Amino acid sequence: MPTIGVLALQGDVREHLHSLTATGAKALAVRRPEELDTVDALVIPGGESTTMWKLADAFDLLQPLRLRIKEGMPAYGSCAGMIMLADRIEGGIEGQQTIGGIDMTVRRNAFGRQVDSFEADIDFAGRGRRRAVFIRAPWVEAVGSGVEVLAVAEPGDRIVAVRQGSLLATSFHPELTVDIGVHSYFAEMVRAS
Ligand code: GLN
Q1: How far away, in angstroms, is 81 Cα from ligand 1 center?
Q2: Where in the sequence is the domain holding 133, given as residue range(s)?
Q3: Residue 35 CB partners (closer than 8 Å, separation 6+)
Q4: Which atom from ligand 1 is nearest to the alpha carbon of 79?
Q5: Of 118, 100, 106, which is closest to residue 170 (Cα–Cα)?
Q6: How much is the pTM?
Q7: What's the number of domains the chain is made of?
Q8: What is the pLDDT along the chain (193 residues), one digit of tens a residue?
Q9: Can you give the CATH number for the domain in which 131 is found?
Protein backbone atom coordinates (compact mmCIF):
# COMPACT_ATOMS: atom_id res chain seq x y z
CA MET A 1 0.00 0.00 0.00
CA PRO A 2 1.71 3.25 -1.06
CA THR A 3 1.92 6.26 1.22
CA ILE A 4 0.62 9.34 -0.57
CA GLY A 5 1.21 12.75 0.98
CA VAL A 6 -0.96 15.83 0.52
CA LEU A 7 0.92 19.12 0.51
CA ALA A 8 -0.70 20.84 3.49
CA LEU A 9 0.40 24.46 3.23
CA GLN A 10 -2.95 25.78 2.05
CA GLY A 11 -6.06 24.61 0.22
CA ASP A 12 -8.44 21.66 0.37
CA VAL A 13 -6.09 19.21 2.07
CA ARG A 14 -8.68 17.29 4.10
CA GLU A 15 -10.79 16.50 1.04
CA HIS A 16 -7.81 15.00 -0.79
CA LEU A 17 -6.81 12.94 2.27
CA HIS A 18 -10.35 11.60 2.36
CA SER A 19 -10.46 10.67 -1.36
CA LEU A 20 -7.01 9.05 -1.23
CA THR A 21 -7.94 6.97 1.81
CA ALA A 22 -11.06 5.84 -0.06
CA THR A 23 -8.83 4.38 -2.82
CA GLY A 24 -7.09 2.21 -0.23
CA ALA A 25 -3.90 4.29 -0.09
CA LYS A 26 -2.30 5.47 3.13
CA ALA A 27 -2.61 9.27 3.11
CA LEU A 28 -0.92 11.87 5.26
CA ALA A 29 -0.45 15.63 5.37
CA VAL A 30 2.98 16.99 4.38
CA ARG A 31 4.12 20.34 5.78
CA ARG A 32 7.83 19.91 6.39
CA PRO A 33 10.75 18.66 4.26
CA GLU A 34 11.23 15.68 6.67
CA GLU A 35 7.62 14.66 6.05
CA LEU A 36 8.14 14.85 2.30
CA ASP A 37 10.94 12.28 2.68
CA THR A 38 8.49 9.73 4.10
CA VAL A 39 5.96 9.65 1.23
CA ASP A 40 6.01 7.67 -2.04
CA ALA A 41 3.94 10.25 -3.90
CA LEU A 42 2.34 13.65 -3.40
CA VAL A 43 -0.94 15.42 -4.09
CA ILE A 44 -0.90 19.20 -4.43
CA PRO A 45 -4.40 20.47 -3.60
CA GLY A 46 -6.59 23.20 -4.99
CA GLY A 47 -6.45 26.53 -3.22
CA GLU A 48 -4.48 29.59 -4.24
CA SER A 49 -1.24 29.09 -6.15
CA THR A 50 0.29 32.46 -5.18
CA THR A 51 -0.18 31.70 -1.46
CA MET A 52 0.99 28.11 -1.88
CA TRP A 53 4.15 29.27 -3.67
CA LYS A 54 4.93 31.86 -0.95
CA LEU A 55 4.37 29.34 1.86
CA ALA A 56 6.40 26.61 0.10
CA ASP A 57 9.22 29.12 -0.19
CA ALA A 58 8.90 30.26 3.45
CA PHE A 59 8.80 26.64 4.71
CA ASP A 60 11.89 25.69 2.64
CA LEU A 61 9.88 23.21 0.62
CA LEU A 62 10.27 24.58 -2.90
CA GLN A 63 13.70 23.07 -3.62
CA PRO A 64 12.98 19.71 -1.91
CA LEU A 65 9.75 19.47 -3.91
CA ARG A 66 11.55 20.23 -7.16
CA LEU A 67 14.19 17.64 -6.33
CA ARG A 68 11.73 14.85 -5.49
CA ILE A 69 9.81 15.51 -8.69
CA LYS A 70 13.01 15.52 -10.73
CA GLU A 71 13.89 12.16 -9.14
CA GLY A 72 10.58 10.77 -10.40
CA MET A 73 8.22 10.97 -7.40
CA PRO A 74 4.64 10.67 -8.74
CA ALA A 75 2.63 13.83 -8.12
CA TYR A 76 -0.94 14.95 -8.83
CA GLY A 77 -2.02 18.59 -8.77
CA SER A 78 -5.65 19.77 -8.84
CA CYS A 79 -6.44 23.36 -9.86
CA ALA A 80 -3.90 25.50 -7.95
CA GLY A 81 -1.90 22.24 -7.77
CA MET A 82 -1.96 22.06 -11.57
CA ILE A 83 -0.49 25.57 -11.65
CA MET A 84 2.22 24.45 -9.20
CA LEU A 85 3.21 21.55 -11.50
CA ALA A 86 3.41 23.71 -14.66
CA ASP A 87 6.77 24.57 -16.17
CA ARG A 88 5.27 27.86 -17.43
CA ILE A 89 2.34 30.00 -16.28
CA GLU A 90 0.35 32.89 -17.77
CA GLY A 91 -1.49 35.39 -15.61
CA GLY A 92 0.66 34.83 -12.53
CA ILE A 93 1.51 37.62 -10.12
CA GLU A 94 4.88 39.39 -10.27
CA GLY A 95 7.67 36.87 -9.66
CA GLN A 96 5.31 33.91 -9.11
CA GLN A 97 7.18 30.60 -9.18
CA THR A 98 6.02 27.04 -9.55
CA ILE A 99 7.47 23.67 -8.64
CA GLY A 100 7.28 22.68 -12.30
CA GLY A 101 7.71 19.24 -13.85
CA ILE A 102 5.07 19.15 -16.58
CA ASP A 103 6.07 20.66 -19.92
CA MET A 104 3.01 22.88 -20.28
CA THR A 105 1.83 26.48 -20.12
CA VAL A 106 -1.09 26.98 -17.71
CA ARG A 107 -3.26 30.11 -17.67
CA ARG A 108 -4.45 31.09 -14.18
CA ASN A 109 -8.11 31.97 -13.69
CA ALA A 110 -8.67 31.19 -17.36
CA PHE A 111 -12.37 30.36 -17.14
CA GLY A 112 -12.81 33.12 -14.57
CA ARG A 113 -14.08 35.98 -16.64
CA GLN A 114 -16.96 34.06 -18.16
CA VAL A 115 -17.95 32.07 -15.09
CA ASP A 116 -16.17 31.97 -11.76
CA SER A 117 -17.19 28.43 -11.04
CA PHE A 118 -19.17 25.78 -12.85
CA GLU A 119 -19.67 22.05 -13.20
CA ALA A 120 -19.40 20.01 -16.36
CA ASP A 121 -19.53 16.37 -17.46
CA ILE A 122 -16.21 15.47 -18.97
CA ASP A 123 -14.58 12.30 -20.24
CA PHE A 124 -11.45 11.62 -18.18
CA ALA A 125 -8.72 9.42 -19.69
CA GLY A 126 -11.25 7.52 -21.82
CA ARG A 127 -12.82 6.06 -18.66
CA GLY A 128 -16.27 7.46 -19.15
CA ARG A 129 -17.89 10.76 -18.30
CA ARG A 130 -17.71 12.19 -14.81
CA ARG A 131 -18.85 15.35 -13.06
CA ALA A 132 -16.07 17.93 -12.76
CA VAL A 133 -16.13 20.97 -10.48
CA PHE A 134 -14.24 24.05 -11.69
CA ILE A 135 -13.52 26.96 -9.29
CA ARG A 136 -11.61 29.95 -10.68
CA ALA A 137 -9.94 27.26 -12.69
CA PRO A 138 -6.89 27.41 -14.92
CA TRP A 139 -6.71 25.75 -18.32
CA VAL A 140 -3.73 24.43 -20.21
CA GLU A 141 -2.74 26.74 -23.06
CA ALA A 142 -0.02 24.60 -24.59
CA VAL A 143 1.69 21.26 -23.99
CA GLY A 144 5.03 19.80 -25.03
CA SER A 145 5.24 16.61 -27.10
CA GLY A 146 5.71 14.38 -24.02
CA VAL A 147 2.41 15.44 -22.46
CA GLU A 148 -0.74 13.35 -22.84
CA VAL A 149 -4.08 15.20 -22.84
CA LEU A 150 -6.57 13.29 -20.64
CA ALA A 151 -9.59 15.62 -20.73
CA VAL A 152 -10.97 18.71 -22.42
CA ALA A 153 -13.89 21.00 -21.52
CA GLU A 154 -16.06 23.69 -23.11
CA PRO A 155 -15.80 26.39 -24.18
CA GLY A 156 -13.57 25.44 -27.06
CA ASP A 157 -12.23 22.06 -25.96
CA ARG A 158 -9.81 23.58 -23.47
CA ILE A 159 -7.30 21.14 -22.01
CA VAL A 160 -8.25 20.44 -18.37
CA ALA A 161 -6.35 17.23 -17.52
CA VAL A 162 -2.87 16.10 -18.52
CA ARG A 163 -0.28 13.49 -17.70
CA GLN A 164 3.45 13.47 -18.28
CA GLY A 165 5.11 10.28 -17.04
CA SER A 166 4.42 10.06 -13.32
CA LEU A 167 2.90 13.55 -13.10
CA LEU A 168 -0.85 14.18 -13.33
CA ALA A 169 -2.77 17.47 -13.26
CA THR A 170 -6.43 18.50 -13.50
CA SER A 171 -8.01 21.98 -13.69
CA PHE A 172 -10.96 20.65 -11.75
CA HIS A 173 -11.47 19.36 -8.19
CA PRO A 174 -12.35 15.65 -7.94
CA GLU A 175 -11.69 15.93 -4.20
CA LEU A 176 -14.88 17.99 -3.88
CA THR A 177 -17.05 15.18 -5.23
CA VAL A 178 -17.78 11.66 -4.00
CA ASP A 179 -16.30 10.25 -7.23
CA ILE A 180 -12.84 8.82 -6.51
CA GLY A 181 -12.08 7.94 -10.16
CA VAL A 182 -9.25 10.45 -10.63
CA HIS A 183 -7.68 9.56 -7.27
CA SER A 184 -7.91 5.86 -8.17
CA TYR A 185 -6.22 6.61 -11.50
CA PHE A 186 -3.42 8.39 -9.60
CA ALA A 187 -3.10 5.59 -7.03
CA GLU A 188 -2.68 3.15 -9.96
CA MET A 189 0.07 5.39 -11.37
CA VAL A 190 1.79 5.34 -7.97
CA ARG A 191 1.55 1.55 -7.66
CA ALA A 192 2.96 1.14 -11.18
CA SER A 193 5.88 3.52 -10.60
N1 GLN B 1 -7.24 30.62 -9.14
C2 GLN B 1 -6.48 29.86 -8.20
C3 GLN B 1 -4.99 30.06 -8.36
O4 GLN B 1 -4.56 30.79 -9.17
C5 GLN B 1 -6.79 28.39 -8.31
C6 GLN B 1 -8.20 28.12 -7.86
C7 GLN B 1 -8.42 26.81 -7.23
O8 GLN B 1 -7.48 26.06 -6.87
N9 GLN B 1 -9.65 26.51 -6.99
O10 GLN B 1 -4.24 29.46 -7.65
Answers
A1: 8
A2: 3-192
A3: 5, 28, 29
A4: 8
A5: 106
A6: 0.96
A7: 1
A8: 899 999 999 999 999 999 999 999 999 999 999 999 999 999 999 999 999 999 999 999 999 999 999 999 999 999 999 999 999 999 999 999 999 999 999 999 998 765 689 999 999 999 889 999 999 999 999 999 999 999 999 888 999 999 999 999 999 999 999 999 999 999 999 999 9
A9: 3.40.50.880
